[in-house]
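Sequence in, structure out.
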Amino acid sequence: MGTQKLSSKNQIVIPKEAREAMQVKGGDELLVVVKGNMTIVMPKPKNYAKALYGIGKGVYPPGYLKRERRSW
């Protein structure tokens, strides 16, 4: 874990190992998410539907969604 200094223009340099891990290069867009006192930086998805696909897997118990859909 490296440390970076905030410039007088409020800019930081993302270390090479972090850029490689996120597979980003100059000109790519990043998302900055603030959660309480933590800030998360991640690449902006090219396709949000593809990025979110399967994120809810395991949230509901087995068979719950089928029962709910039948009740409609």
